[in-house]
Amino acid sequence: MKSSVFRFQRWLAPYLLCIALALSGCMGSPGADINDFFTSSNLPSEPEVTLKFYFGGEKKAATDEVWTAVSEYVKDKGLNVKFSIHFISWPEYPEKLLVMAAAGDRWDLNFDSDSSFREMASRGSYMPLDKLLPEYAPNLYKKYQMDGNLRSTTMNGDIVGLPWSIKMNQRPYAGWRVDLAEKAGIYREPESVQTVQDVDVLLHELKRAYPNSKVTRITALPFYLVREEWLDLGFHGLGINLNDPNHKVQAIEQQPFYVEAAVMSKKWYEDKILSPESLIDRADSSDQWRNGKVLFTLTSHEWAHAADQGFVDPNYRQQMSLLYPDKKQVNRSPISNVVAINRNSEHAELVLQFLDMMETDRKLYDLVIYGIEGKTYQMDGEQVVYPHNLSDSTSNYMGWGGQWALWNSRFIRSTETYPGDFWGEEARFAKIAVNLDSPLEGLLLSDYAISKEVEERVQLYEDMGRSIEFGLVSDVKGAVSDYRIKQQNIGLDKIIDEVQRQVDLNLASNHPD
């Protein structure tokens, strides 16, 4: 999946409590089914409404058939809606959302994530839900109250998105095609590739063994961010050092390690390790890895330990090694996977009623997430599996992109990719000492007061910064120096001052004492 999610035991008790409250509040009979008590303001006599949803990735073959079945199911429960489901490829997704929102397009619900969500929210692209959520999705609202996650999607006092309630960490792992490495006599002890220097040696060995293969499209910068314990704010190259007690906002290009990373990327580019088209390659990097198009990748604990990697060829094998295991890394944010309602939606109350049904109705949940039993999935005991003629790479519905924001830890099932207590293990990994919650949780930065400066900063990054980071400049130190000066001249100090102001307000709110 594009961004990960899961089930853990730590949330089981709160969810059971939530259900207990719901049962005690609305059921007179102890043997009654909660679905019998679902109510909707949408009377059968009301006209049918089409809800338009956007998600990321590929639209799988059985999507329309499944969502037709979803429509039939919710109509039986009193919600007179059908669904128009659209997908946008991942590399184009954030930009297209922004363009659609700026053009005033109408849709009802979309998936979003991290910096894309921050940018959409800061531009007022999403509908405030403060009054609508408790009224039309009371069960969902209770869950969020118990989790305390709505703070992460609140901007200027308005709830503008619905976050996931899952705990995991994205601490990066170096990954390589170990089947090809071993064939070429390249061996590494488990967990022995831990630094950018270790990665550099491995990449050169792979290139020498397979000179005509694409080794990687990943620049060196992500490795240095881990080494330096840099917390990216998801705001145009600004961040803080996790060891800084004052949480001073800084620009990434001003850091000494930025030059180091650019020098290493230049080395990889000149040695044909970093593919020449990496700068303009818009293909999904995870698809390239699973399809065997690259020899090396950067991934997370989730995909380092998933039972089924989703390779198109069962002969492909990977080896993974945790990078900089002694360095601090923040856990994934609640806004890593979000659903939000478009500000121009005319049917927000129906969207929320649908989401509330998914919170309480397991049959509906299974239908939306897994599809039609016997066609898109089968049950093997308590585990969801692909039908005999399908797999992760050929799935006609399961594994569809953007579903993660809809995952419910009470209902999520074991799968071939994530068997048994997989998500419980992810939660435990997030609790190790060097994995910590962000000190700036709930920070949604607005560029309203600095929009002109931000626009110029973004354009300068496109004109100069990307080429530096991908190793395409002839004189790294000179190019970085020139880039730093130009960023200063177009208003970097003003941007940092405004972002620091918002960071300080967030810290004061999170730590009132």
From TrEMBL:
<dbReference type="InterPro" id="IPR006059">
    <property type="entry name" value="SBP"/>
</dbReference>
<keyword id="KW-0732">Signal</keyword>
<feature type="domain" description="DUF3502">
    <location>
        <begin position="453"/>
        <end position="504"/>
    </location>
</feature>
<dbReference type="Pfam" id="PF12010">
    <property type="entry name" value="DUF3502"/>
</dbReference>
<protein>
    <submittedName>
        <fullName>Extracellular solute-binding protein</fullName>
    </submittedName>
</protein>
<dbReference type="Pfam" id="PF13416">
    <property type="entry name" value="SBP_bac_8"/>
</dbReference>
<feature type="signal peptide">
    <location>
        <begin position="1"/>
        <end position="32"/>
    </location>
</feature>
<dbReference type="InterPro" id="IPR022627">
    <property type="entry name" value="DUF3502"/>
</dbReference>
<dbReference type="InterPro" id="IPR050490">
    <property type="entry name" value="Bact_solute-bd_prot1"/>
</dbReference>
